Amino acid sequence: MSSVRNVTFNFRDGKATSVAVQQGESVLDAALAAGIPVIHQCRSGSCSSCMAKLVEGRAGMRAGASSTLLRSEYDAGDRLLCLTEAETDCTFALNYASDAGATQAVQAHAFVDSVDKVATNVVRLRLELAEGAWLDFKPGQFIQVRVPGTNVTRSYSPASTASDLPKIELLIRVLEDGVMSKWLELDAKPDDVLEIEGPFGSFFLREKVPAPHIMVAGGTGLAPILSMIDSLRRQPGRKPPILLSFGCATPEQLFCLDDLELRKQWLPNLTTRISVDHHASGDLLAGNPVDAIRDADVTHENAVAYLCGPPRMIEAATTKLVTLGLRPENIYAEQFAPSN
Ligand code: FES
């Protein structure tokens, strides 16, 4: 029996391309060697950038490889191509257009503009790219930031958009003993220089979808969602209805509520629901942002959803939205990977 498998990639714009994959070779390695623009980053199962859906044939993840893929995602056909080997000829669907992966990540320097604590556990870091530097990104994608004085990098999705460049705004969760958190608390000041690299990731706003958008954000998962909302606002033409469900553990951990109010003024189609797990009062809903999604929220067969937050939130939101009738292929998600 042949040890070479024919693997086909179907891009969202209708383009398809195939590659021969050797036994033991990862599907991602074979695709990249053939110049197929598959979005990727870590090549080790930890960033989810290379996610694709197996729609035909058999392909499994390497035995013993650890990854961020949820069991439910695997069962639904999702695969991380960097850890996937083809067992038969097979076909993968990629949920982005064939030109989306063509943007190469670049390295750049950026200056710190400001560092502000915006909640008990969230810091807003405003950066400005150095003169002559440029780093384009789609709303929802992430960049990597090297913590000054270390070899440690952390990944953050800008809350700003490419239209705001050379300014970049990050919302960073403060972690006890976190390397970045300590730098932000003890050392960061205006005009410090940071090394950044990007863009990375396949979680980004799909363009020109007129159907309703449901967005679910937990904690600093709000950052890429803000970028998406601002991009939708700036798109020419009619805006889709947008429902944002955002939640944190306590009222003291909420942030950017004024920014959301402002966006509601600019975007009458935007509805927000803000929830907290504990001590809800006033307009705040009790519970998590998935609880705040209601049966009547999925009103259109082509509705799309963007989810960003901890893995359990992503799993619960996906299950609920599919149960309510949202098509699984219309759900885009980015889960926080734990920092090492
Ligand atoms: S490139 Fe496959 S998970 Fe990061």
Quickly list its features.
Rossmann fold, 3 domains, 340 residues, alpha/beta, Elongation Factor Tu (Ef-tu), domain 3, six-stranded antiparallel sheet
Explain what this protein looks like in three dimensions:
This protein is of the alpha/beta class and 340 residues long. The protein folds into 3 domains: 4-100, Ubiquitin-like (UB roll), CATH 3.10.20; 104-200, Translation factors (Elongation Factor Tu (Ef-tu), domain 3, Beta Barrel), CATH 2.40.30.10; 213-335, Rossmann fold, CATH 3.40.50. Helices cover 16% and strands 33% of the residues. It is built from 6 helices and 19 strands. The protein has helices spanning 27-33, 71-75, 179-186, 222-234, 257-266, 311-323, and strands spanning 4-10, 16-22, 51-56, 59-61, 78-80, 84-86, 90-93, 106-119, 122-129, 142-146, 153-156, 167-173, 193-200, 213-218, 242-248, 270-276, 285-286, 304-309, 331-335. A 6-stranded antiparallel β-sheet has the order 11-10-13-8-9-12. A 6-stranded parallel β-sheet has the order 17-16-15-14-18-19, sandwiched between helices. β1 (4-10) and β2 form a beta hairpin. It is globular. The model has no long low-confidence stretch (mean pLDDT 92). The structure holds FE2/S2 (inorganic) cluster (FES). The site of FE2/S2 (inorganic) cluster has 12 residues, from loops. One of its GO terms (molecular function) is 2 iron, 2 sulfur cluster binding. Keywords: 2Fe-2S, Iron, Iron-sulfur, Metal-binding, Monooxygenase, Oxidoreductase. InterPro entries: 2Fe-2S_ferredoxin-like_sf, 2Fe-2S_ferredoxin-type, 2Fe2S_fd_BS, BenC-like_FAD_NAD-bd, Beta-grasp_dom_sf, Cbr1-like_FAD-bd_dom, FAD-bd_FR_type, Flavoprot_Pyr_Nucl_cyt_Rdtase. It is an enzyme of class 1 (oxidoreductase).
